[in-house]
Amino acid sequence: MSEFSSLREMSADLAKGAYSSVELTQAHLERIQTANAALNCFISINAESALAAATKADQQRAQGDQRATLGLPFAHKDIFCTRDILTTAGSKMLSNFVAPYDATVVSNMAAAGMISVGKTNMDEFAMGSSNENSFFGTVSNPWDHTRVPGGSSGGSAAAVAAGLVAAATGTDTGGSIRQPAALCGITGLKPTYGRVSRYGMIAFASSLDQAGPMTRTAEDAALMLGVMAGFDPKDSTSSERHDDWLDGVVANGIAVLDRPLTIGLPREYFSDNPNFGGIEAAKTELEKMGHTLVDVSLPHTESAVPVYYVLASAEASTNLSRYDGVRFGHRCEDPQSLQDLYERSREEGFGAEVKRRILTGTYTLSVGYFDAYYLKAQKIRRLISEDFQQAFTQVDVLLAPTSPTPAFKKNQLTDDHVAMYQQDLFTVPTSLAGLPAMSLPCGFSNGLPMGMQLIAPAFREDLLLELAAQYQRQTDWHLKRPEAVV
Amino acid sequence: MSWEAVIGLEIHVQLATQSKIFSGASTAYGASPNAQACNIDLGLPGVLPVLNERAVELAVRFGLAIGAQINQHSIFDRKNYFYADLPKGYQISQFETPIVGQGTITITPENGRSRTVGITRAHLEEDAGKSVHDLYPGMTAVDLNRTGTPLLEIVSEPDMRSAQEASAYFRQMHTLVRYIGICDGNLAEGSMRCDANVSVRPSGQTEFGERTEIKNINSFRFVEQAIEHEIARQIDVLEAGGKIERETRLYDPDKDETRSMRSKELSNDYRYFPDPDLLPLSISEALIERIRGELPELPDARQQRYTSTLGLSTSDAVAISSDIDRADYFDACLAAGADPKQSANWMMGELSAYLNKHDVTMTQSPIAPALLAQLIARIDDGTLSSKTAKTLFDALWSAGPAGDVDELIETLNLAQLSDDGALTQIVDELIAANPKQFDELRSGKEKMLGFFVGQVMKATQGKANPQQVNQIIRDKL
Predict the structure, then answer these.
(1) What contacts B73, CB < 8 A, 6 or more positions away?
(2) Is B229 exposed, middle or buried (0-12, 13-18, 19+ CB in 10 A)?
(3) Average pLDDT over residues A387-397
(4) A377 close to B (CB below 8 A)
(5) Fewest CB atoms within 10 A around its CB: which of A114, B46, B131, B206?
(6) What are the chain A neighbours of B88 within 8 Å (beta carbons)?
(7) What's phi and psi for B312, nearest 5 deg?
(8) Residue A130's domain spans which residues?
(9) Whose CA is closest to A404, among A270, A307, A252?
């Protein structure tokens, strides 16, 4: 086995008995234990439960279980509730929280026989674009340890990029899968809103949050999506839609794209940014593959970031009200009154960025400001959705950069909130529209990976995966590895 | 100056669902603290609400019963505030688009005339938990069993003008929700609670005065007392030249007074916004029609039928129709062929007395409607006198559902004596034994007729047919 084996490769090896799931898991755990000191991408390493699950997977295989997913190690972002295992959401507030139940994504992965080796670091409550907002410390980018991995799923991205796991779950509210995937040179897919259950996924902004896979290849992303996705009666916003390709994707892999696509280039996303050499080359590559590129316009793009910060903060401000020190999580010492309990528990338990967003959200929902902010933002959100609908009458998918810059230095943007929020420029519009989008490596800028983003109409992850797989057959950007990280 | 009170009520009705409005936990009353609070009720990180369809159906049923518009598209909002018994820090409610729109209900206050009260709206929401302040000194205990119990909040128009009308409205609502089976109506367990908005204004003035809100009243008596008290308090304040402050007040039934809880300046900004965890609620026309088909005959319609078609007195008709069990019992008597007025008399008389005495509900009565109908039939055909009928009733009560009317009449020898010869012989013997009284009767002292009839009844242990005895004595004159 190699540390950069894909899920598919490990699956084949397990099937032919090259090694057992216990051996594979053990190897993962050893590598994680060695590398985590430098990278800090795991909040918890769950050796005991992982080896128990691997032992069970090996037994199942011995009894004839041939599922492609059986016994494959991966990691969960520490935002998914796991029964009997710490779930922190990167926050001091939940630094002692052990959920009494499994998130639907967690039980789906377990039911497929996959082995969670640990839980990855993240920006507190998924709020951030650099992973610097974690109570558990900053994660290092495997390509350059002085740089951030992006966020909020920075731990997952770094773990996958460093070869500690082939796959990790992530969540994406405004770009939290795609931007760290781009900054760490891996493949990340944010599915259509409603595709993956949110039950047990600690909420940031309910109307935007969506879980998805972070992997090194499109094929592995498809396998992960096949396991994670599906209607869940416990989530009223999960889609009841049924897709044959998705049911078969774990067993069959991604279908070969057998027709040329029309790919739209939203002009609002492109500029003569010196970091965009990779995506410019990708355009040529896609044309060589037979696809047609056309210019399109998404005129409300420039409103997306402010709209996103109004809406996401509004939802977050009330989603985070439950962290009050009463039933679980951090509680201040010796509260003198209920008010004191609330004030000090929340003052001590939340970090600065979380407080900033709670304050913003509380403000925009208040009497007298609601219409000017929340309602107006909802109206613009609709316009942004309509921009995409209009574009998809002309094109099959859209191609756009994932982030304006490669990984930036730690502490570089921590005092410049607006610059930090601009990291989400290219990812939030799709989040607001609820559309599926995928980031894949497309080159380098100053030796650091850059990502490109493919965006499809709702529930057309098949198009994204087919095009991404085709691109990855023709190019090797996804096979580039950082220098030895361990 | 004379004053007029203006009152509107907000009634919270706990809907009679098995499970909570957004979780699968049981809503049964009386479990040990927090035993019925599941992960969702506890507001644990990551949990999501899923709407209980039954709660929606019960709300629609209510809307149809008050003739209201059912909003086929409604939205759940978050009402944000912090409190120890509100786990999520927000209550899921409906703010701008309630499920039930405007409707009406007819009330009949005691000694008053019937009138119609407007209902502004009714919306679905989840109940909060309970904070218990007197269990542990210096601490507050929190019981989240009630958290997530489905509530229908019914908001009236400010249409009531006296505490009596408000109380009649609350009673009528209590009758209605039990009638249509959406609430068990158990006030002691908090199944119905009400907040009253009260203001006063000089008689003849059309603008409303400043109002106060009295919170959490949970009995018919307290509604009347609390409002009565609050009206008097406001009039006192105004007549002393003072001003009514918009505020929330709490009624203390022990002291019979209301006291200020919080003033409006300190009130929360609830920051309502649509709950992104729940989709807008859509209700199909087909569902509405199905629920309409399941509605029972409503109290107003029944009362109308009892008075105009069956000729019952208004008081009997109100008494019977106001309770669905009573009304069903009554209709079952009619279905078994009994006379409406006699059925009503027996129900409101003997049966009510026995049920009270034995603390049994109408549905548990050992005398089923069919048995009562048979008993009434035996009065009608002259077999029973009113006196022997009561004896039979008592025997039937003891015998329970297995009791047989004719068998008991036989065994207990309750049939009226209507043999002319036998009765004539008894009358002759009595005249012979009481010649002086007979003379008085013959000289026109009508009162003596009663004396002789009484003596005959005594001699026959009440089994003689009094009309027949009357006739025999008159014939002797």
Answers:
(1) B97, B280, B281, B282, B283
(2) buried
(3) 98
(4) no
(5) B206
(6) 321-322
(7) -75, 155
(8) 7-259+463-479
(9) A270
Contact yes or no for B78 and A322 at CB 8 A: no
Provide the residue type at B107 as one letter. I
Q: Are residues B334 and B397 in the same domain?
A: yes
Q: How confident is the model at residue B265 (pLDDT cuts 50, 70, 90)?
A: low
pLDDT at A148: 97
Write down the pLDDT at residue A485: 61
Domain assignment present for residue A418? The answer is no
Per the structure, the count of domains in chain B is: 3
Per-residue pLDDT, A163: 96
Of A32, A481, A459, nearest in space to A216 by CA? A481
* SS3 category, A470: helix
Spatial distance between the Cα atoms of B389 and B414, rounded to a whole number of angstroms: 8
| pLDDT above 70 for A119 | yes
Residue B13 β-bridge partners: B152, B192
If DSSP codes are grouped into helix, strand and coil, which group holds residue A453?
strand
Bridge partners (DSSP) of residue A85 are A82
Please tell me the predicted confidence (pLDDT) of residue A484.
64
Q: pLDDT tens across A28-42, in order?
A: 999 999 999 999 999
Cβ atoms of A120 and A174 within 8 Å: the answer is: no
Q: Is A152 a catalytic residue?
A: yes
Task: Tell me: do B92 and B175 sit in the same domain.
Answer: yes
Same domain assignment for residues B201 and B271: yes
Closest chain A residue to B52, measured at CA: A236
For B43, which of A314, A322, A362 is closest by C-beta distance? Answer: A322
Q: Is residue A60 part of a domain?
A: yes
Q: How confident is the model at residue A273 (pLDDT cuts 50, 70, 90)?
A: very high
Range of the domain at B317: 297-411
User: Across the A/B interface, how many CB contacts are shorter than 8 Å?
Assistant: 100
Q: Is A336 near chain B, with CB under 8 Å?
A: no
What's the full length of chain B, in residues?
477
What is the tens place of the pLDDT at every residue in A423-444? 899 999 999 999 999 999 999 9
Range in A48-52, B56-60, B353-357 the model is least confident about: B353-357
A237 to chain B, minimum CA–CA distance in Å? 7
Q: Which of B87, B271, B279 sits opposite A365 (nearest CB)?
A: B271
Verify cis geometry, omega within 30 degrees of 0, for the bond prior to A238.
no
Q: State phi, psi for B258 to the nearest 5 degrees.
A: -105, 145
Mutate to test the interface with B, among A88, A173, A236 (most CBs of B within 10 A): A236
| Structural domains in chain A (count) | 1
Whether B303 and B160 map to the same domain: the answer is no
Q: What does pLDDT average to over chain A?
A: 96
Q: B459: domain CATH number?
A: 1.10.10.410
Which residue is it, tokens 């007025």?
B341
Length in residues, chain A? 486
Residue in the structure block whose two tokens are 């800028």: A445
Closest-CA residue to A29 (of A161, A164, A139, A163): A164
CA distances for A248 relative to A190, A225, A252, A462, angstroms: 19, 11, 6, 11
Instruction: Supply the CATH number for residue A125's domain.
Output: 3.90.1300.10
Q: Are residues B400 and B312 in the same domain?
A: yes
**Least CB-CB distance to A236: which of B51, B269, B272?**
B51
The enclosing H or E element of B80 equals strand B77-80
Q: How far apart are CA B359 and CA A152, in angstroms?
A: 65
Cβ contact, residue pair B271, A318, below 8 Å: yes
CA distance A294 to A278: 18
CB A417, CB A167: distance < 8 Å: no
Q: pLDDT: is A485 or B154 the higher one? A: B154
